[in-house]
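This entry is listed as follows:

___
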Amino acid sequence: MSADPIDRVPQPGESESSESGPESAERAAPARGTEGLETDRYSEIEVIGHGGSGVVIRALDKEILRDVAIKIVDPSLASDGSVVGRFAEEARITGQLEHPSIVPIYELGVDQRGRRFLCMKLIEGETLEATLNRLGSARLEPIHLSRLLQMFVKVCDAVSFAHSRGVLHRDLKPTNVMVSDFGQVYVLDWGIARLRSGSPLVGHRVRVTAGAQGPELDAPGALVGTACYMAPEQLLGKHDELDDRTDVFALGATLYQILTGRPPLTPEIARAIWIRREAAPIARPETIVSAAALPQELSRIAMRALSYQPGDRYASVAALKEDIEAFQRGVWELPRVTFAAGSIIIREGDDGDCAYVVVDGRCAAYQVEDGVEVELRVMGPGEVFGETAVFSSKPRTANVKSVTDVVLLVVTGDVLSKAVGLNSWMGAFVKTLADRFREADQRRRT
């Protein structure tokens, strides 16, 4: 009797199947020596990969003289209607998703031995998972993390585009993201993609038959996908209840692996969900890796995407992408306020809930000593004030008024926390500087 697949949740670097039921997780790879492609147009060069239902080869297109990737159905499964049907669906769905980050399909054909094959662009590079494994803990260094987030945004673009055409991927994970040698990012393996209906679309709906919706290939309750990246509703086999938020969960799982180096669902969590028992919460990234190295905003984004309840996740991939891009920009899309000349902007002793950046005009910081205003400094465009109280969480140490009409950017404590990371070593450094500045100011006044 085969092992329960939920007890075997694949870990980074392991291969896994994406079949339609728990029992198929144990299916062996296709037998070697049966893969040879027999067509007049393509000449096989080498085998480059095996999956649960076929083999992928590198071949030469003798007409155009370019190397291509060709996926061939395993001969032993050629009579399995669901396998052949899903193979054709993959070709038709992927072929209609024309996007820079989705692999172009060249041909869906049958070779001289009667086997279905799918010819597509050959992508040379490494998977996102291979990249993460190669980087190890260095993945969180700013130079690497920035590049990984750029890749992630491109993945979000591709998935969001697919959603706009009515397609759910259902198997998003780092092994299904390929980064080419020249930096192009591709979302791979649309073999278990599912068409959804009922939601308004942008553009033409993808079709797999002459009708709008193809035949149902998923048995009710069947496990379809990769357990350690799957949303609860997908783990439970609720195929008709899946929507954009199901892929949002898998994208959150991919982001989680970027941050922690591992998938979010342990075998225990996945199994608890699968057998409909209360599952333990997913461990927050900062409990797995050093909080000093981890941007807290990215942890928040990942955990929101990974909410067990669909309604608590981002409503769309576009919304998830927006938060990632805001983090990348440093969240410097700030509100502006205007003060007329002579206005009091900050009062000494008030709580410091925000700081300001001068966009236009001049402001003066001052303290009142024995009823007399003592000017401390005059600030012009580009200068910042009010940050000390925000970082130290203590009352304002001075007054600020506008000398001329001024335009200011308002920087809240929450934005500063996201941009600097108040729980990181950089945040601790800035807090210490703020406290020392306050102490120096107090000594000056005594």
